[in-house]
Write a structure and sequence with these properties.
Shape: elongated
Family: Belongs to the SAT4 family.
Keywords: Membrane, Transmembrane, Transmembrane helix
Helix content: 55-70%
Number of strands: 2
Strand order of the largest sheet: 1-2
Protein name: Rhodopsin domain-containing protein
Membrane topology: Multi-pass membrane protein
Distance between the termini: 92 Å
Largest sheet: 2 strands, antiparallel
CATH architecture of the largest domain: Up-down Bundle
Number of domains: 2
Subcellular location: Membrane
Length: about 375
């Protein structure tokens, strides 16, 4: 997009220039200023879903830390500014949807109107950088607290600290550079470094989890919880691809929309990485799992969990008879099967235990 010094033109000519398309349209394409084609519905749905998911997992983590664990750490405080900038980012997206639209070609926008949209995009880029910076610092600090024994300085600790420092310095520099001048190459650099950092953060805890002394099924479950960040890898890779496309394109307004939404999805995934490991504590403490199972038809018989237990056990009951001539002898008894359901719920300070017993007699 070429920059024009309007001061060199008379007022009438200035108005004429400002009413031109912001980008020369392809041959045969007529600009549509009044109702340009867009993908606003997809943009609204993406923003609404991402915002809803983020708010839910943040509230659940806050409940787990404040009510269940009753202890907060520095990473819990750092997520507050991350959530603030995230919500502001979503607001910028809805603002852009209202004023210009998403995936609108630049030739369908008048030159006088594009400056406002570019300003919103500029603010959004800064908010995105701030959100990612705070989130990844929070994740790394929690990784260190969980996987590194207090006072230990092992390879995990130093790797996390190096990534944390480099990540913070880079994103702080990116925010400064973004406000000094607009350079499309910086988006490629930022997306590349961001993708590498995502990979390191996801890979860091995996080896430690595999070395834990626990059943393989539990290990897989823990790995799945911590590996939910694979979604952030996919979003980060998509963002890098779209950033390269943006660099090669003159249609900044259209291609920037894809980068904007992919960054939103990536930030949402990072919130999941940070919050999801704490959520099982909420289900265990509130008995939500038991409540859901109680609404399902039939009974589930299987291994007990922390929230409820359902199962059955079998015992052999024998009879002993004694007389003066033969002494005491055991006679054939019955096979006794007891089915039980145990549900533990915290409500005020009382517990409700439901126990049902079905005894069947069988001669052996």
């Amino acid at each position: 997009m070429d920059f024009i010094d309007l001061s060199k033109f008379p007022p009438a000519e200035q108005e004429k220039i400002l009413n031109r398309p912001a980008l020369t349209p392809p041959p045969g394409v007529v600009p549509n200023f009044d109702n340009p084609p867009n993908q606003n519905d997809a943009g609204i749905a993406t923003n609404a879903i991402c915002l809803f998911i983020t708010l839910v997992v943040v509230v659940l983590r806050a409940y787990a830390k404040i009510v269940c664990v009753k202890k907060l750490h520095i990473e819990d405080y750092l997520v507050a500014p991350a959530l603030t900038t995230y919500v502001a980012y979503v607001y910028c997206d809805f603002w852009m949807l209202r004023d210009g639209g998403l995936f609108v070609h630049q030739w369908d926008v008048r030159l006088k109107d594009i400056s406002h949209t570019i300003f919103i995009l500029h603010v959004g880029v800064n908010l995105c950088a701030g959100t990612i910076m705070f989130l990844k610092v929070s994740i790394l600090l929690e990784w260190i607290r969980i996987f590194v024994p207090f006072g230990t300085r092992n390879r995990f600790y130093w790797t996390s600290m190096v990534v944390l420092v480099l990540h913070t310095v880079f994103f702080a520099s990116w925010i400064i550079a973004e406000n000094l001048s607009y350079v499309k190459k910086i988006h490629i650099l930022a997306a590349s470094i961001n993708l590498i950092a995502n990979f390191v953060i996801i890979a860091l805890p995996q080896w430690t989890i595999w070395t834990l002394q626990m059943h393989i099924k539990k290990k897989i479950g823990v790995i799945l919880i911590f590996a939910i960040g694979i979604l952030s890898l996919a979003a980060g890779a998509t963002r890098l691809y779209l950033s390269v496309a943006l660099y090669r394109s003159d249609d900044i307004l259209y291609d920037q929309s894809g980068v904007y939404l992919s960054a939103l999805i990536e930030m949402t995934c990072l919130f999941l990485v940070f919050c999801v490991p704490s959520i099982p504590k909420v289900f265990a403490e509130t008995g939500l799992v038991a409540k859901v199972k109680s609404m399902l038809p039939g009974q589930w018989q299987g291994p007990p969990s922390s929230a409820d237990s359902v199962g059955a056990f079998t015992t052999m009951v024998t009879a002993r008879g004694c007389d003066s001539s033969q002494g005491c002898q055991e006679t054939p008894g019955i096979l006794r099967t007891t089915e039980f359901t145990f549900t533990a719920e915290k409500a005020a300070s009382d517990q409700q235990i439901a126990h049902t017993e079905d005894t069947k007699g069988k001669m052996v």
